[in-house]
Structure formats: C-alpha cells, structure tokens
Write a sequence for this structure.
C-alpha cells in the first residue's frame, strides 16, 4: 500500500484549499492511505478542521512555538522525521509549499518532483516545463517520492465530511536561529487568489495605483479575488503578491476577467486552466483575445462602471 503524507497549509483559522487539491491528487494513486501533517502554535482548533478533510485517516498535529510554523526552518526537521515511514510526501505548489517541500526533500535525500499536474501511477507523473508550453512525464525509481502538487490542475476534495484521528506531537528541539517576525500582505478580506472561483485582474492599461481602485470595487461587488500582470506589478501599481503568470501565481478560477492586460505568454501561462476567460482591452490585436472566451474592445474606464451599474 502507498502511504501518503500531505502537508496542510492554513492561516491559523482555516485550511487552505490547496491542501484539499493535494488530497485529490493523492487519491489517484491506487491502493493508498492518506495522512495529513499540520503545524501551528494554537494547534487544537486547526487540527480539528484538518480532521474534517475527506479521505484522510490520521492528522499529525504538531505544536510549535510562537508562529514559527510559517517558516520552513521551524518545521522541516520534524516533518522529515515523521515522513520517514511514508512512500509519498506531497505539498501544495503554493508559496508556503514551495518553501517547505524542497527542504523536506533535501533532509530525506530525495529529488523533488515539482508542479505535478497529473498522476499516472504511484511512480509516474506529468508536470509542465518551458512556462507550460510543454508537458513532460517523470518516472521516479525511488521508493520515497517528494512532490509539490499544482493546485490549478486538481479539484478541491470535500473539506467537511472527514473524521480523521488526531495524533499530537511536539517539536523537541525547535529551530531558534530563524524566527517569524511579521507578515505583510494585501487585503485579506478578499478571497485567496490561488483558490478563488472568480478573479479580476488589471494590467499596465489600468494606468496607476490609484486607478486600480476600479478593479478592487468590481471585485468586491462580485466577491472576487484580485490579480495583476507582471507589468502592473513592475510599474508599482500593486504588490508582488497579486502577480499572476509564469513568475507569479498559477490559478484556475471558474471566471477570470482581465482588464488592460495585453496577454504576454508569461501571463497566459498562469491562467490557461481557467474555466471562462473574459478580456477587455483597447487594443483589438492584443494577444489575450486569442485565448479569451469573451472579448470586448473598449475603454475599461467606461466599461467597468457600466458593468457595475447592471450588477
């Protein structure tokens, strides 16, 4: 039987959907048993939520000091220790997962398989290369596999029907050289960009940081997350955490609306798995119209207010 251990990502209050998507990937391995590992300082509440994840047998709940569960340096030693008895160790291919999983792979003496987008069997996976322009099949001959799961490629497993057993652990020798100080992030009231069903993004065509308010207003109107192209980030209109694309976040919302984004290949890499792509741009020759399901040539500063009036 394949014993699979999955890293649970959370914000202290709720489990990130990337965890549930990693569970969906794990289910595609035949004859499997799935456990979850979770770190937190206030562990009891979040461990109970992890226990509600469907298809999970055991939750390894590890109590940490302060908020060092947000740092790979504070948790990977214990993670690798508990992972010794597992054939597969998966984590979501999010910022957190990309920080933690390579360290775990190194401690276990394994090569990591990154951004798994399809599970063929217990040792064979597909992943994108060349900014998503090619897909390769990777076969690992090892009896222990460490991998990050591309969240845009898998559906979210049920997060409320599980009844896993919780096993409590402590970190005996907490790492002390690196400490969590603070987290600076954007508006946390909007949905998470990587798991949101609806995303509204702006590009260089929005024109300024102040003009991005029109994007935020529309997003708040329909309950969407907000994103941006690299051009908008480089211009200083929005923070880096909003960047969508090859060097930003890879997303797969049901609805993606792009305002003032021309559609460079690096940006399209990040949205190609979206359900419906809507593009609004003044340039009728913008590359994004080639991949959009609905395209509208026009001034976003006229279109967005008209759209909001009808919502």
């Amino acid at each position: 039987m394949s014993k699979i251990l999955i890293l649970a990502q959370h914000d202290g209050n709720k489990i990130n959907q990337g965890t549930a998507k990693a569970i969906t990937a794990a289910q595609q391995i035949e004859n499997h048993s799935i456990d979850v590992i979770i770190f937190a300082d206030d562990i009891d509440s979040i461990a109970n939520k992890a226990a509600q994840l469907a298809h999970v047998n055991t939750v390894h709940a590890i109590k940490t000091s302060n908020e060092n569960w947000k740092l790979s340096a504070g948790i990977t030693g214990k993670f690798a220790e508990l992972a010794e008895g597992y054939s597969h160790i998966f984590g979501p291919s999010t910022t957190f997962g990309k920080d933690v999983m390579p360290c775990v792979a190194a401690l276990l003496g394994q090569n990591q398989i990154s951004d798994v987008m399809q599970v063929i069997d217990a040792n064979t996976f597909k992943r994108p290369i060349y900014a998503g322009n090619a897909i390769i099949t990777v076969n690992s001959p090892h009896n222990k596999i460490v991998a990050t799961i591309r969240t845009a490629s898998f559906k979210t497993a049920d997060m409320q029907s599980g009844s896993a057993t919780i096993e409590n652990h402590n970190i005996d020798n907490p790492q002390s050289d690196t400490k969590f100080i603070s987290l600076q992030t954007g508006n946390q009231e909007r949905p998470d960009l990587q798991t949101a069903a609806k995303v509204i993004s702006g590009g260089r065509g929005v024109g300024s940081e102040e003009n991005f308010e029109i994007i935020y207003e529309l997003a708040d109107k329909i309950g969407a997350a907000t994103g941006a192209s690299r051009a908008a980030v480089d211009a200083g209109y929005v923070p880096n955490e909003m960047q969508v694309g090859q060097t930003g976040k890879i997303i797969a919302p049901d609805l993606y609306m792009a305002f003032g984004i021309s559609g460079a290949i690096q940006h399209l890499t990040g949205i190609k798995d979206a359900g419906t792509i809507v593009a609004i741009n003044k340039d009728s020759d913008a590359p994004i119209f080639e991949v959009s399901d609905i395209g509208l040539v026009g001034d976003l500063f006229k279109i967005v207010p008209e759209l909001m009036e009808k919502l």
